[in-house]
Amino acid sequence: MGAPPARPARRGRGKLRILGAAGACVALAVGYFVTGPSVSSAKPGDCVHISGSRSIEIVKCGDSTANRRVLSKYENTADTGKCRVDPRSTDAYSGKSGRRWNKKRYVLCLGPLTPAAGTPPVKKT
Questions:
Q1: DSSP characters for 25-41?
Q2: Which pLDDT score, from 0 to 100, does residue 32 have?
């Protein structure tokens, strides 16, 4: 009896791993640019679309889905009562952003898309 026959080389696995990694990178990049900005990056004057009780996204103010404008933003708090100070405020949204171990809380005070005549401009806090 001689030596056992040599197994054929597995060259295909390395190429599949490289293609899989490249595909994952492309999917992440596309997801980042397609999903748009996070609501945690909203600032006074931005427009948002609210659908449901916790679904909110930043949209362009000219977008037909825009239904609220950010009047003010408070950092490092979850107190939506801060929005009662502004009589234009109709809604408040509290959220978290950042990594699991370093979450930052914020509150967005929201109002109508177009301000009523004689109201002060949107303030930055």
A1: HHHHHHHHHHH---GGG
A2: 45
Measured CA to CA, the distance from residue 90 to residue 115 in angstroms comes to: 12
Report angle CA 4, 7, 8 to the nearest 5 degrees.
Answer: 145
- In the chain the first and final C-alpha atoms are separated, in Å, by 85
pLDDT tens, residue by residue, 24-49? 555 544 444 444 568 888 999 999 99
State pTM to two decimals. Answer: 0.62
- Helix, strand, coil percentages in the chain from 3-state DSSP, rounded to 5: 25, 25, 45
- Residues found in the chain: 125
Task: Please name the residue that has the structure tokens 């401009």.
Answer: 121
Q: Which residues pair with 58 in a beta bridge?
A: 48
- Separation between Cα atoms, residue 64 and residue 84, nearest integer Å: 27
Top-confidence residue, 70 or 38: 70
Backbone angles phi, psi at 41, to 5 degrees: -90, 5
77 Cβ contact partners less than 8 Å away, ≥ 6 residues apart: 105, 106, 107
